[in-house]
Amino acid sequence: MKLKAGIIGCGSITRFRHAPEYKANPFISEIVFYDRNPERAEILANQFAGSVAQSLDDLITDPTIDIISDCSSNEFHSINSVKALLGGKHVLCEKPIALTLEDAEQIVQAQRTSNKKLMIDHNQRFTRAHQKARQLIERKELGEVLTFKTSFGHAGPERWGINKSNSTWFFSKERSGLGVAGDLGIHKVDLLHYLLNDQIEQVSAFQGSLDKTGTSGEPIEVCDNLVCSLKTVGGRIGTASFSWTYYGEEDNSTIIYLTGGIIKIYHDNKYPLIVMDKDGAVTKYQLETIQTNDKQTNSGVIDSFVDSVLRNQEPPVTGEDALVSLKVILGIVKAAETASVVQVNQSSGKVETKKV
User: Fold this and answer.
1) What are the CB-based long-range contacts (under 8 Å, 24+) for 45-50?
2) What are the residue boundaries of the Gfo/Idh/MocA-like oxidoreductase N-terminal domain, all occurrences included (predicted)?
3) CATH number of the domain bearing residue 110
4) What is the dihedral of CA 291, 297, 303, 305, to 10 degrees?
């Protein structure tokens, strides 16, 4: 059986990740592209031997299309993904799932109503180094997790975006909403939940627009750097840094400190996973390098999404998973804005501010 895929939005995430991964998947028969700028859709349709939908409604109502990637900008996810799900399509939505809890919950409810698959593109779960690290932690091969630190930073979305300029929508408060927190930070929050099999429940943070400027030369409307402290339900504590101003080299590393040693992930260019026990013995795993903006490799996301549809299985990153991570990111941003410690209440769907 083969599936026909549709893609909403024809920016860089489609050009470099979704489209080539659909094209390489043997179970995809064709890709149909839609963008508010028809020329962008035409370019990618020609590049990937696909076709163009003249409108969003044409894409969603096309009975031959089985699955849709929502690669629109952040503020449109709650519109496009809901329409696609209720239109009978399985949906892979780019992160963050939405900009508000209310909008995210609408997408999750649309999935429940439609009974279609909904997967969110938190791609860090799919790297072999992260999967192996989770396995080591689950098996308690180095004891219990105590603390952690993680970082995700690069030179900024304007270096990779389709316009290659500071006019990128990522710098707009209305469209990006959460700045580097929603672009990079939410990936690492999801990763920590995945690695630790735990949830972050308390946060504090600092954020700033330290270097990026918009088209007028003024500092951008959203944060380009954010540093936070995190505490999980299980009592683990750690730090996280997210940045659009790592100009020399991209950093996508994580260190987990356990009672029996240390797990280092993506700290070494040759060995993506290094394990050191408390007696100093070192094991180095020569796995694949992580995907970067400058080095595009198959993320595994499209293959996993297609597989979940064909096998009628729950996707590995559900809408509920993404909602949990969004609550944490909104809590982190609130903590930075209010100089407070914020309690993330997953059961009620709210974030509560605690005085420092």
Assistant:
1) 47/15, 47/19, 48/19, 48/20, 48/22, 48/23, 49/23, 50/19
2) 4-122
3) 3.40.50.720
4) 40
Domain holding 155: CATH number?
A: 3.30.360.10
- The amino acid at residue 331 is G
Residue 128, SS3 per DSSP: helix
In this prediction the pTM is 0.94
Count CA atoms within 13 Å of residue 277 on its CB side. 8
Q: What is the residue range of 101's domain? A: 3-123+309-316
Side chain identity at residue 23, one-letter code:
K
Do 107 and 175 lie in one domain? The reply is no
Domain contains 79: yes
pLDDT recorded at residue 166 = 87
284 and 330 share one domain: yes
Cα dihedral: 279, 281, 284, 285 (round 10):
-70
β pairing state of 237-243 and 225-232: antiparallel
**Per-residue pLDDT tens digits for 107-142:** 999 999 999 999 999 999 999 999 999 999 999 999
